[in-house]
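The record is passed on directly below:
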Amino acid sequence: MTSDHFVAAELARLCAAKGVRHAVISPGSRSAPLVFAFHHHPDITCLQVVDERSAAFFALGMALQLHAPVALICTSGSAVLNYGPAIAEAFYQRVPLLVISADRPEEWADQGEGQAIRQRDVLAPHMKHSVQLPRDPADELARWHCGRSINEAIDHTLLPVPGPVHVNVPFAEPLYGRREHPPEDHRRLIAPVMTGPFILPGHARWLIGQVSSCRKVMVLAGQGLWSPGLKAQLQRLATLPQVAVLTEATANLDDPAFITCIDRALEGVNDANENDLRPDLLITFGGAVVSKRIKALLRKWRPAQHWHVDEGQRHHDTYQSLTHDIAVSAGTFFAQIMNGAQGGESFYGEAWRMVDQRMRGAQARLLREAPFCDLTVFATLNDRIPGGSDVHLANSTPARYAQLFDRVRDIRWYGNRGTSGIDGCTSTAAGAAHASGRLTTLVTGDIAFCYDSNALWNDHLSPLLKIIVIDNGGGNIFRYIEGPDTDPALLPWFEAPHERSIAKLVRSFDLPYFHATDQPSLEQGLDLLYGAHDRPAVLHITTDAQIAPKVLREHFKQLREAGAPPA
């Protein structure tokens, strides 16, 4: 059984044939043909999430884990506009989402008809591809074109790099008719053949020669989940004396040979050693980098060469020094480079490791003396979150604090760093936990948690989802950033202090709730949080809004003093 609208039936059939196994659907009437077609398809699992904004982030979290496109289905009108934040995130983080929006006949746009807006290409700026399907393909030529367009749209979610695609489908009434599946000979699948580019031998020899001869090579890894093979190549590269490899939590590349706490290490850069640490060659790959400090420093240093490795062929010039755009995958690039790269006479890698070691020791001393605050909370979480699990970092404080600590327990780190918004962090973690079946911890702030509270209005929440809310009075990051804190009268406009009860909010969704206000109750709360529950559990940690930014400022100040050259 399927819809009697050809386009809806064809969409569901081709999605299933091309490996789309999940559809997240928000209720509506105009989308009835799509609901019928997808719900009745035996190879597609449909999930209902009422709030379209939350639904889109939930699907994003699922796609992150499945490494396959997830379909999003909504009704006509403003519904599709609510997908916007998640679509922008998917575009910049390269997550495959297939947005299928039902529409009223396009002729009714701007004619006073309800739920009839200009839906064609409505999300195009952050879509890899957008297509308007015909309302009623009446002949074989029109049906051929419709099928070809659907094939192309689905393939665009993955090739040449993943990302979101929009399919807009106008439907005329009646909407609720059904029919048997069309015969097999009407089914036409266009299958993509996978290909993979590589660096041409002559260019590879030149690149290898540059890495081998350069005295100071910095490799900076951005966000991503990388293969063990890529990590092994980077480990080999880091053994070359002229190479320093810098990574962050969301790069998921932790190794004793790498500099994994960039912001902490940078406090050891000073006038005496700056020239030794400044790279001549910068090699970057991956998604977003959290550290504003490394961005500012590299823009100041302006390396003589900057190679950006990205198979999407996007000219990312984040550090305003781009000299070579290398359009291959990071795995291919480093495998080819390590086939011939040789070590040279250099102290560069060791210079970075010495600074990092000095800053690590200084931080350990400072943490022992720090009062209970956001910094000590994150230090505890870094030690206590179970190994072998997933952690989602909400924006913006959690994503920054997590970069200050060493990570050693096989945790996969995620964060919506494509656009760095707070709007869907909980929904993304919920979708990821549902799809992965893994223990998943969301570390979030009180503002981000309240903002995305509709994430909990969802019948598909995994009991393996654990939520840690660090409540520092609302947007406490603005007490640390220079500027907003200089005018007490305007500070509330940045911080957004609120009177909302986190406890009542959590209990309104009938979720287990625990509260911590100091180190002993934090330790106890974590034990309770990671106990067995049949619903997601929430640990609410209250910290002092005044103390947290002061401690963080003092923390960096004392790190700088520890890293300063002797007088």
Summary: The mean pLDDT is 92. Residues 370-558 form a domain with the Rossmann fold fold (CATH 3.40.50.970).
